[in-house]
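Encode chain A's predicted structure.
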Amino acid sequence: MKTKLCLFVSSMLAVRLFAAEPAPTPRRPAAPDTPNRPQTGMAGPAVGMGAFDRVLTDEQRQKLREYTQASSEKSRATQMESLKLRRELQESVMNGDATEAAIKQKSEAIAKLDAEVLAARMSAMAKVAVTLTAEQKQKIKETSTQMRTARPGLGAGPREAAPPVREPAAPPPPAK
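Encoded structure for chain A:
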């Protein structure tokens, strides 16, 4: 009797375990104008060029890739130098030995390096932009606007609505 009960209980547990296995998450299909092409995102190959890259034809995308790769070695070195300076600045601030002048000097150096990377990226985009159709340009503008309004803290300006009113997590302390 105990054996049958143990078998029954163990089989019920096994059934529940197999039934509890999560289903695989479905993949989003590619956009209709980009069949069989992986979706790009913030961590994808089109970092900083998301709205731009999504509307390009395969030929335009290849040209953009060529222009970007032509300056990628210099850009990579510049980005690494910027990262190194950021770490040094943070370490000196955390160690307490950063002066206002040193902070300003490092910050300006970081800004200059970031500007060089941005200029290289925009230069590659400008070379491809001359080949864009009016429809592609309009779609890029619309996508860029949608991205800015979806993430207001990232360049879309101040939020239009007031922040939500939240209840305090705990009652205020008693008055003394």
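The longest helix spans residues 100-129.
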